[in-house]
Every structure is written in C-alpha cells, then in structure tokens.
Fold:
Amino acid sequence: MTYQTKMTEADIEIAQHAAESLSRMQKFFHENNIGAKLGNELFSTFVKFTFDGNASFGESPEESKRINRDDPRLMQWMSEVQHIIDYIRSENAGMIANMYAETDSVQEKSSLLKSTFLEILMQNDATEGNPVDGTVAVLTCLCVNHIDNVKYMPAGGRAFH
Structure:
C-alpha cells in the first residue's frame, strides 16, 4: 500500500502543516547559524519534555489528560501517525537533509534561543486556558531528529502493530 492510499485528507493537511513547520525551522537554523548538534538537541529536548508527562492528550482540550511515554494512548497514537511521519520524511527529504546551517556559530542553548525555537515551532502562544495543539510540532520534531529521539519515544521509537 502506498502513502497516497493510506493518507486521508486530514493526514495530508497535517503533513502540509508539518512541511510548513519544517520550512520555518530550516530558516531559523540557517539565519541563526545553528548546526546539527545544537539543532538536534533542541528537537530532542522538546520531544523528551513532551513525552515525559508535560503534554496533554485528548480529542479536545476539555477531554485532555496528561500523558507520559508509557501511556497506552500515546503508544496507540504513535502507531496511528507512523504513516504520516514516513510520508512527511519522504516528501520533505531534501529539506530535512539540509535542515541545519553548515557553520555552527551558536554553541549552547540559551533561554532566549529555546524560547525563539519554541515560538517558531509552535506558531502559537499557549495560555493556561487555551492550550496549543502541538501535534504538528511533535511530528516535525519526530521527522527531523528521529535517530536521537528514539530513546524518548514509546515502544523504542516506533509503535508496533
């Protein structure tokens, strides 16, 4: 079965938003001379934070509950989105391969750098009463830095069917 036959309209819309996110992230890394080491660290930190119980999961903000990487709902979600991750990687392989600046003039994460990274990644301001849907942000991170993120993901990096 090809990606095209598996992908629903909603999946394609999420993939398009992830491609836009990838483009924003690439621009951020290149404009700020952030290389692969620090860029991967930023992506991994976000994934670890998300899967360590700092995110909520649910169909709506009202139904959302905090999750961690051992939560069966997260493992189920990973299983359900794997084809989207694979599709995004295949459709954006060139952008992902050239994600980071060649010269790495920024050597460490600062609070300003992390804050700017999150603003660009999330594209929204979250408030206590108005959480941000981080689906696209998580998918973006999983697509780019899947090797370093494996240790933080449920089921060893890939949900099993």
About this structure: The chain has one domain: 9-157.
